[in-house]
User: Fold these one by one.
Assistant:
Number 1:
Amino acid sequence: MATTTKTGASKGATANKNATKKATGKSAGSNANSNGSNGADSSSKSKTGGSNGNNGSANGRNGSSAAKSGGKSGAGAGNSQLETYFHDALKDIYWAEKNLTKALPKMMKAATTEELKSAIEEHIAQTEEHVSRLEEVFEIMGKKPQAKKCEAMEGLIKEGESIVEDTEDGSMTRDVGIIMAAQKVEHYEIATYGGLVQLAKTLGMEDAAGILAQTLEEEKQTDEGLTQIAENDINWEAEQEG
Ligand SMILES: [Fe+2]
């Protein structure tokens, strides 16, 4: 089903006019699903998993090195280059999450549909929790929470803002744009947390890994939720508004 949907998708945008609502909606869906590396729904799960898989596997050997480092004390393991890198990456995502707590309310306000507004609202609450979890991880490391500007997230947030500027207030096209911008953010976070979970394990910080894994799971759910909102007619309705 996924494959059919996907094929219909690319053609959908043009073939659209005489297609049925459902079919068109779907096709638009998998488009914005560029939204998804996610692509079509059934593959989306494995893909998302895949991207973590990648992180996992990028650090894949870590699985075994985690075991090797089992003897080390982990959190207090010292100042190896890897631990310094991990600490820097934490500062980066800490900055990103904190700035998202400021950017998301603007996105929520700008969104057209109640559905998207409430999805963003829910994600704001989650993001605040993500900030607190990162603070716990800093604490586990015996460090003070510290933010370091994340250029990537700054760019993604700016992109979201310019989408709002470039789309009409109250339009469905604006929601399509916000969804795609939000999914780019989610994918950045999924990649980051996927890597951090593996590194925490490698460094012997099992507790930190568990905390980061919770956030990773929530980011994945948010991403999938956004895909569903796009596919449940927002894309199609945007196509209809001309
Ligand atoms: Fe987050």
Number 2:
Amino acid sequence: MDEERPDELEKPETRQPDKPEGRAGAGRAFEVSSFIRSMLGSIGWGLKFAGSAVVDLCLPRSCADCQRIGTLPQKSWCGACWSKIPLIGPPLCPGCGRPFMDSPASPDHLCGDCIERSYRFDSARSAALHKGTVRTRVHEFKFGGQLKWAPCLVDLLETAYAAWGLPPPDFIVPVPLHLKRLSQRGFNQAGVLARELGRKIKTPVLVGVLVRKNQTLPQTRLKRNERLKNVKGAFEIAEDRKVRGRRILLIDDVFTTGTTLSECAKVLKRKGGASEVYALTVTRALPD
Ligand SMILES: [Zn+2]
Ligand SMILES: [Zn+2]
């Protein structure tokens, strides 16, 4: 999603990990773990993630929220912090994945936007609501360049993907950034998430097939109609042969109105000939 950088990046939580008696070794292990991780980080991009995967198998991890160290039941999150994440589950819209928080007893049903066929993707899901620690981690990752948060966000993507029951996609495609923004930020947050998810669910990632030809305005402060106009014609297909007849899973960090994902899906289908396009994001921002 194109989201305007917040005026001031939310500060990382400064809560100290609990240090019960007899856990001094865990603290030392974390220092070693952090040192090795930082060494791997300095080697370079590809090695960083490949290396992290190896290190994560061998060394204790710290929870992405409370920073407690140990064997974490949810990979990057301890059980207590995982239970606080506002994960999206039923009842929801089977089309766009919008949760119905105010009517927990109702069955799944289409939302107004899906009844009006507003979206061009076949369906979409998001792992959690765009609030709390997850929102903070998304902002730190995306605007603060804190790539260390990618694994905890991908754990959320993987959980939502597993619960979805989607037929296996042929390819994963990240929502692209315009080259100018890519050079400013140094990385495409959707691309990083897509690569890590692809590795976990053993699905190839296509980068460069869908490209952003126009630099769009940040979507955050635009109304829905303005957003539609803003992203219309912003994307094009560079190599249609790769997606023709294929089932595509689009990846982005945040689903707000779905206009960017819908436009990407439209281009992948109309111009690329993709047979099906699904969209998965870490968080879903609901209008107030
Ligand atoms: Zn925790
Ligand atoms: Zn819907």
